[in-house]
Amino acid sequence: MTFEYAIKRIAQFLIVAFIAASVNFFFPRMTGQDPIAQKLAQLQISGGAANTTGMKEMIATYNQKFGLDKPLWQQYLTYLGDTARLDFGQSITNYPATVMSMIQQAIPWSITLLTVATLISFVIGTLAGAWIAWGKAPWFVQAIFPVFFTFSAVPFYLMGILLLYVLAFQFQIFPLFGGYSATRIPGFNMAFWIDVVEHSVLPALSIVLASIGFWALGMRSLMISIQGEDYMLQAEAKGLKGPRIFFRYAMRNAILPQITGLALTLGTIISGAILVEVVFGYPGVGTVLLTAIRGFDWFVLQGVVFMVIVTVAFTMLIIDLLYPILDPRISYRRE
């Protein structure tokens, strides 16, 4: 990998971030909706603002407070400057809380849950798929994994509902909802962390069960496609042991597309498995996003969407730069 290529990819990442920020700014405004008026109307319908007198004055006051009364170009320049500092303003619904503080509170829940669940499903699914394609998997693996292949067509949230009904409602093995018990005071102690783990088992299990088959199918197809390659035949002709051929020759050459898929998946974890978090009442970024959509919270929507796009672009940048390290055959040098 050349230094020029690295600079080029970083420049492309910055361009993607700029385009994402611009689209994120202009797209909501193309709808012609006033978020302040929508929020006040929502409060009025729900009984939170029954007095309609002075509604226009309230809208004008809030628009001034959030800078929505300025010319569009001035709003845009202010927005770009604030976004460069990861300052997305204050939440309309939860004023005076800032958007970044809300995201920071939710990110650890989503990243921990989804990273662990994704890595577990990736490792198990990739190894099992390669093992099945190799033709030396035990009979119970070959018998069980068709079930996981079926599960791969089931959405996360639907798997979560099934697990919630069986393991939390019927048998009451795990908690029904939340990130921790309502009676538990958060703190750095063993009792609190055990409670958090108990609440995260079902959301994580719904993701793992629905993802293992996906990773296994992908790896199985990749392993089958390389078994007739020359380097595989040469390794067998040398008389190398089966495990060495399996890991050093087969899996090493077949796993690159899987790693790309893993990078894309991990790049989206900041958004959370939104419906999974909603089903279990889990306090992650997905729940924050859904609450912002329901509450017409413009600035929270912009903050979350921008963070998701930039995270995916940054993940692809990192995996692209790491490709030559993972596979020496890949080179970005010009011939």
Structure description:
73% of the residues lie in helices and 0% in strands. By secondary structure, it is mainly α. Helix 13 packs antiparallel against helix 14. The longest helix has 37 residues. The chain starts with a helix and ends in a 9-residue tail after the last helix.
Give a concise summary.
The protein has 335 residues and is mostly helical. The chain is built from 14 helices and no strands.
CATH topology name of the domain at 114-295, in short, is MetI-like fold
Largest sheet: none
What distance separates the N and C termini?
12 Å
Helix content: over 70%
**Element string (H = helix, E = strand):** HHHHHHHHHHHHHH
Tally of DSSP β-strands: 0
Poorly predicted residue ranges: none
State which percent range the strand residues make up.
Answer: under 5%
The radius of gyration computed from the alpha-carbon positions, rounded to a whole number of angstroms, is 25 Å
- CATH architecture descriptor text of the domain at 114-295: Orthogonal Bundle
Oligomer: single chain
Give the class from helix and strand content and strand pairing. mainly alpha
Mean pLDDT: 79
Shape annotation: globular
Number of helices: 14
At the first level of CATH, what is the class of the domain at 114-295? Mainly Alpha
